[in-house]
Amino acid sequence: LRNVWNFDLRPLNLIPSSYVVLNLVVPLPWLASWLPRPALSTHYVIWEGNPIPWHVPTLIALVILANIYLSNGIRFSITNLSPGTARSLPTVYQDREGISLYDAQYSAGEKGPIPQDVIEAVLAALKRFQIVCADFGVPETNIRVLATEATRNAINSDDFRGQIRDATGWEVNILPKEAEGRIGALGVASSFDKVQGLVMDLGGGSTQITWLVAEEGRVETSSKGSFSFPYGAAALSRELALISEQGDAQAAKLGLAAKMKTQFQQAYLDLELPASLEHRAHHGGLTLYLSGGGFRGWGYLLMARHKVHPYPIPIINGFTVNKHQFEKTVEVESLAAEAEETPLFRISKRRAAQVPAIAFLVNVIISALPMIQEIRFCQGGVREGFLYDLLDPSIKALDPLPAASARFASPSADAISQLLQSALPAKDHDLDRWAPPALTPAVLRAVADLMYFHSDHPKESRANSALLAPITGALASAHGVSHTDRALLALVLSRRWGGQLAPPYGDLESRLQATLSKPEVWWCHYLGAVANLIGHVYPSGAIDPSPTRKRLEFQSKWTDGLGKKGLDQGVLLRIRFRDGDIMTSPTIINSAIDEIDHVGKKKSRIGGKEFGYGVAVKTKIDRVDQF
To answer: Where do the domains of the chain lie, and which CATH numbers do they carry?
Structure first.
């Protein structure tokens, strides 16, 4: 196997390298023909260390040495890739060592070797992480040190990597440039339940662009890989600084912008978008997914000046703006200038100093690619892309939200999820009425998983804690969850516990509601009331499905003839209880049913009694001997 591992596997079209570890002695050509060809393969990097053996505990430790000249730090992480929750890439440990090599290497105005004192600082950080890995029980075979092509190109690269090997026993695995872009694309794919659009990554030294379609575990990108340009945040800052020293700086800037625009437009053509994306480009516009520290910094600045202020979800992954918001470069630059004196959330002085260069890049992007209408920011990078590529296709196909909430599930979470689903009426084509599509089965399953998580809290803090769970609580670190899903989940869970919030949580609830549509907010209140009833009937979260033990069943549909005058359309919710069961007796469940009825009243409309959004609700109670 050691000899097999060192072969150049690229011509063989092998999917993730973990599949090679079969404990079989077979001819490589036969093995290659047996394995299916993936839509996107990045694991053709030839690891100098041993492959990850998947029969050992699934804790994976990574050290990411990003662009060694332009990175602002070394990132360490330990991730649990146990199959049940792996899709959300659960982080067990993460840290960053703020070792920046750029200033030291370019202090003389040109590229120099990595200084020995900086190498020694890197070695100390790596040896510390080696101890951390041992403390967490990470097998040595599950530890990887990843670096980009720039590490190989360092003047003293061999010496640098040799010192790391001597000090830790770890090999530095260098991603080829073509693999770096694809790993980055996989990082974006990991950041959402599905991706369809353009992807750009902004590092310190370069900007990369490609297209990506990721859905149901299948990941496709351009056969050309990604196109890279030397317009990273630090590199572009440096170039603009040099231009500013010229006699006709404005003309030079315009010339640079025109050059960049032409390059991006040509890259867009050369990427050869699939028909599905071309159709989107001409009908509604494309989504642009942004990753990399420079773009994330821009996202945090947009978050700081969002119309919902302060923005209620302090997580960059999933943050979404439209084209008009994205291109407000003057306002963002002004805000960044203030950040150099008054700190802003997640904006360091170093990042604030790069904002003029990023603003310059943003203006060029919007000018070059006018078909972009929506922008989504991603946390996914090399780390997330590498880990995502290790997952089986069946795990990649999972929605990251229920994958993240699964560890909190009650014994009968699947049955509870089905109960919630049955309380949502199906679309009625005759009445032209439907519930918001944002209330997906994944959201309902996450509600079912977390419905009992706060049962042990004091009564007065349950709704508060439930509201925070998807934002700064139990699911705060869940990777790949959209802001819409976080807001929906927060509102439903809070209402599941009655929705009575102590200050200042009422203001947070209002700001979360402001990120959603009025129909979405109303249906959250409705589902929360339904969940509250389920919690009354099944206080432990355990459901006996047998016909003689089952306690509760919902049937729902759209109907007309509701309201005091019989003129309203709304929801008829038929609730079937098992007769003679104390858990479904009127004294136990009437208050919860009243809450469902209350949601359907005019005074519960979202946006005001007269002109707000609301749906009439009629509950009908049936009692049966068995189901």
So the answer is: 2-178 (3.30.420.40), 191-379 (3.30.420.150), 400-624 (1.10.3210.10)
